[in-house]
Amino acid sequence: MKEPKPWVKPVLELGPVLIFFLVFILKRGETTVIAGQEYSAFILATLVFIPALALATLIQWRLTGKLAPMQIATLVLVIVFGGLSVWLNDPRFFKMKPTMIYLLFAAILGYSLLARKNWLQAVLSEALPMDALGWRKLTLRMALLFLALAVANEVVWRTMSETTWVYFKTFGLPLILFVFLMGNAGLYRAHAIQTDADEGNPDNGRK
Length: 207
Prior knowledge:
It is a single chain. By secondary structure, the protein is mainly α. It has 2 domains: 1-89; 91-195, no CATH class. Helices cover 74% and strands 4% of the residues. The protein contains 9 helices and 2 strands; from the N terminus they run αββαααααααα. Strands 1-2 form a two-stranded antiparallel ribbon. A hairpin with a 2-residue loop joins strand 1 (31-34) and strand 2 (37-40). Helix 1 (8-27) packs antiparallel against helix 2 (41-64) and helix 3 runs antiparallel to helix 4. The two termini are 34 Å apart. The model has no long low-confidence stretch (mean pLDDT 88). It is found in: Cell inner membrane. Keywords: Cell inner membrane, Cell membrane, Membrane, Transmembrane, Transmembrane helix. It comes from Paracoccus maritimus. Belongs to the YciB family. InterPro entries: YciB.
């Protein structure tokens, strides 16, 4: 199967989130009536986000022929919690969704450590070749990160304004994840292993 262009995956992953953000910002302070029911900007944005994420996930699956388990889990939780928010016209369920996702990820990674199974390595080893110790360290750090993000999400949506939570969800959480990944550059270098491509590269080690 032909690999999609490099920009396709980021667009499919970030597109639904940006659509949610734009709908919320454009409709903020207004109510929309659908089938005789009034919906706030947040609920309307949630209603648009659910099919947008489902479509983006379907397109990615069609293009690559595979989906990561975390992508599937995220889609299921979005449908469940987002659907409850729309059905009950209550934004709290969708705001709790990131907490549930991060707790699930933390639990999966924590169990993989206890069971001595490098599930993170199985998912990311092609992009990030490291030895077993490196993967265990990264797994522990990511499990702790997801726990911290779950707590942070609960604090923000329960104590701050709806607009603040939307900005936090759209920009804050991805930025934290990016900083975390960049902050572990030393771990990647310390536990890197040489791949077949590196061994066959005559220029390897000359720079």
